[in-house]
Amino acid sequence: MPLNDRIVIIGAGEAGVAAALELRARGHAGTITLLGAEAEAPYERPPLSKAFLMDDSMAPTPIGGAAGLETANIGVRRGCTALRLERASRQVIASDGTTHSYDQALIATGARARRLRLPGAGDVPVHYLRTMADAFTLRALVQPPARIGIIGAGFIGLELAASARKLGCEVTVFELAPRILARAVPEELAALIARRHVSEGVMLMTGVALVDVARAGAALQVTLADGRGFAFDHLIAGVGAEPETALAAEAGLAISNGIAVDERLQTSDPAIFAAGDCCAFLHARYDMARLRLESWRNAQAQGRHAAQAMTGVGTPFHALPWFWSDQYDLHLQICGLNLHKGVQVRRGTPGEGLILFDLDDAGRLTGASGLGTISQIGRDMRIAEMLVERAAVIDPSVLADSGRPLKALLRA
Amino acid sequence: MGETWIDACAFSAIEPEDVTRFDHKGRTFAIYRTEDDEVYATDGLCSHEQVHLADGLVMGHIIECPKHNGRFDLRSGAAKGAPVCIDLKTYATRIIDGRIQICL
Question: Choosing among B15, B47, B65, B67, which should be mutated to test the A contact, i.e. which has the most A CBs within 10 A?
């Protein structure tokens, strides 16, 4: 790619900003324009459900540092949504009336909170958490002695539950599935997390279906399929996310549970790439399975990868999936795809930090999941990640013996 | 005000290529021993989010934050790229009679 190509990046979250900074780091000299739909300068989203909610004085953390984008001479248009992507003329038409010509474009529009589909859900205020604006709204509402009903025991729901409990609210969590975090977290660790919520005073109800939400005087009434009713002051739903694909779809780009990209993150138009939560990509690590991942680390890694691909680097995206969650002082880290296959090896004990290693039939490490305080599991999980990265074959008895430092295995 | 040497820990208390936490008067520090038995000290909390670096992994001259993998050169405190952009403050160290001291 000529180093003076005009590049337009649609979306100023982790993926878009990472791409912009990576382009500059690789010596790209042409204009880079970042279009961000939100009013704020690009900020880190993970604290919104945690520290940001609990600490009124906490300011957003800018991505790339306070002046990172400015120093890199990257133009950010805030509060600016891309309305149309005109591929024939290579132009992006933006909501602020501006038009941006590009030689190459990156779509990093992320995902939006899935809306609750339930009778009554359109008539009563149900809150969601995705943006800084959402977080400011919740900051004002999640105050004791409010009764908070949380719908969905995924990461957002549970992190919100922990924050709301710590603030002193009365918290109830409803989950349709028989257990929490069924999609991504091994059962043993999910059970420990559930137990912690209960011991902190959260009313955690799994295997329950909501059939209705309605106003009941000043309160909001939730009705379950078995007829039980619960009253709350505020309702928050954390029922998953949906990729923001409308712009790409209207431009005629291929969509497949996300904007369809190849293993280099290129869309069906060679001048357009996509990265982060909005894209469904072919993962070179998993036999080119088409995946869509919603995580902070993935968004950064894909942003950087897309930038490399735009500069002509042909390597396929190969990063190991990794994510974390914080609830109370419990820190959860997972690397690899939790496929519930093969052998699982336990290291440590509940209460003192527990790591579960996944091994395939050939004895290779394919993933690891750790739960404990960060002191208990942080270091071992980083080593585990490096061992999974190289698909190391390790004697399970060594993995299981918490008296034997994992670090020595890195030198093997 | 002159510089003050503070006794932190025994040199032998840190494994080679490892780090330990040292708290002093409401502040927290990370003290490192390299594979070559050099000793360094930095502020103890990651400059990205307030996480103890002593819970992180030392690899060569790099300390990596256990939470988001922010990396610093433990000799200079220099931030080594996203998500960290602010360098760590460093402190002089010396070893007297097998004890590590840091200069505040």
Answer: B67
Task: Please say if the pLDDT value at position A364 is more than 90.
Answer: yes
Selected residue with higher pLDDT from A6 and A121: A6
- Of the candidates A155, A143, A332, the residue with the CA atom closest to the CA atom of residue A238: A155
Q: What whole-number distance in Å separates Cα of residue A292 and Cα of residue B18? A: 37
Tokens describing residue A411: 């030198």
Residues in A closer than 8 angstroms to B64, CB to CB, are: 382
β-strand pairing of A279-283 with A289-291? antiparallel
> Is A355:A370 a contact under the CB 8 Å cutoff?
yes
What residues of chain A, 292 to 331, have a C-beta less than 8 Å from chain B? 296, 300, 324, 331
Q: What is d(CA A394, CA A245) in angstroms, rounded to the nearest whole number?
A: 42
Q: What is the pLDDT of residues A67-112, one digit of tens each?
A: 889 999 999 999 999 999 999 999 999 999 999 999 999 999 999 9
CB contact under 8 A, B51 and A374: yes
pLDDT at A342: 77
Q: Tens digits of per-residue pLDDT, A272-325?
A: 999 999 999 999 999 999 999 999 999 999 999 999 999 999 999 999 999 999
Q: Is the pLDDT of residue A163 over 60?
A: yes
Domains of chain A: 7-111+243-310 (3.50.50.60), 126-239 (3.50.50.60), 329-410 (3.30.390.30)
The CA distance from A216 to A301, in Å, is 47
Domains of chain B, first to last? 5-103 (2.102.10.10)
Residue of A nearest to B18 (CA): A407
- Alpha-carbon distance A275 to A257, whole Å? 14
Identify the bridge partners of residue A255 per DSSP, sorted by sequence position.
Answer: A259
The answer to whether residue A37 scores a pLDDT higher than 80 is yes
Rounded Cα distance between A43 and A38, Å, is 10
Sheet-wide strand order for A330-335: A322-327, A330-335, A365-372, A354-359, A343-348
Instruction: Write down the ipTM of this complex.
Output: 0.87
User: What is chain B's alpha carbon radius of gyration, rounded to the nearest angstrom?
Assistant: 13
- pLDDT at position B82 over 90: no
